[in-house]
Amino acid sequence: MRAAAETREQALALLDTRADLIYIDCGYIPPEDWAPFVKAAHEVGKATGLRLPHIFRKQAADWLEEHSGAFFGAGFDAWLLRSLEELSWISEKWLEGALQETALPALVFDYTMYGWNRQARALLNAVFELCLKKAPELWETLPLELNCRELKALLQGEGTGPRAQSGESEPHALADGCRQNELVVYGRIPMMVSAQCIRRTIKGCDRHMCLMKLEDRTGAFLPVKNNCTFCYNTILNARPLVLYDLEKELAGLGVQSLRYEFTTENAREVKEIMAGKRIFHENEFTRGHFRRGVE
């Protein structure tokens, strides 16, 4: 079981839960805190991961270059990548020569890498092989767009394209790659990631990270988090995705790890959700595409 934290409070709370790997977000938790947190997690028998930014522009590359000592030296067990540009940056750093003898952590492709059918997964695997063969493990986060039936077909080696929809079997192209996977079963899924900063538009840029809200046409309030480290906003779903209580359906998929994503929760809520003790009423959560898929 894995969990991702965007605040130091959430990360510390996860040390006292059943999560066996904890991702911390590089945009919200500063580099000077990375190594101490890795040490604290390892002391209680938990692995750690670093989650890279949603948007990887020159600003992000320069920032990671500036903090490359912490990035490569903190002792993370995994890096959670959100884009192919991040894989390219890691590959370039390794090919420079200084890191060629370094044992890299596991690489985890996030759901934003869009490996949602056999052709896409084959391409991701080919790019990984081309850029970097050094990582000891390659994991993938399963797509949020697929429903339960489509996820099962994907994991069993069948396609999700037109042939699969007509009932014809499509052998999986990745017999030896991307077989380790995780599925997001809790969290407020981003509705939009935007370089247009709401706080800057309304109040001016003060480089103060905070939680804002937008009201949509239905009257629901969407949380908005501004990431000043990489200068973008994440507009979150008004209701969190909740799948972890669907134990029978999840067991039938054969997923290797479940992931909880924490964004707006406090430490108490983190512990309650990880323990399965928080009760969500019908209008307080969403099943996402797990039951209905994408039309």
Report on the architecture of this protein:
- The protein has 295 residues and is an alpha/beta fold.
- The chain folds into 2 domains: 2-188 and 240-284, Alpha-Beta Barrel (TIM Barrel); 194-227, no CATH class.
- It is built from 11 helices and 13 strands.
- It has helices at residues 8-14, 34-43, 58-66, 68-73, 84-95, 118-131, 148-155, 162-165, 198-202, 247-253, 267-274; strands spanning 2-5, 21-25, 47-51, 78-81, 106-109, 138-141, 180-187, 190-194, 211-215, 221-227, 232-236, 241-242, 257-261.
- Strands 1-2-3-4-5-6-7-13 form an 8-stranded parallel barrel. It has a 4-stranded antiparallel β-sheet with strand order 8-11-10-9, with no helix packed on it.
- Helix 7 (148-155) packs parallel to helix 10.
- The protein is globular, with a radius of gyration of 19 Å.
- It starts with a strand and ends in a 21-residue tail after the last helix.
Helix and strand layout, with pairings?
Layout (H helix, E strand, L loop, with lengths): L1 E4 L2 H7 L6 E5 L8 H10 L3 E5 L6 H9 L1 H6 L4 E4 L2 H12 L10 E4 L8 H14 L6 E4 L6 H8 L6 H4 L14 E8 L2 E5 L3 H5 L8 E5 L5 E7 L4 E5 L4 E2 L4 H7 L3 E5 L5 H8 L21
Parallel strand pairs: 1-2, 1-13, 2-3, 3-4, 4-5, 5-6, 6-7, 7-13
Antiparallel strand pairs: 7-12, 8-11, 9-10, 10-11
Helix pairs in contact: 1-11, 7-10
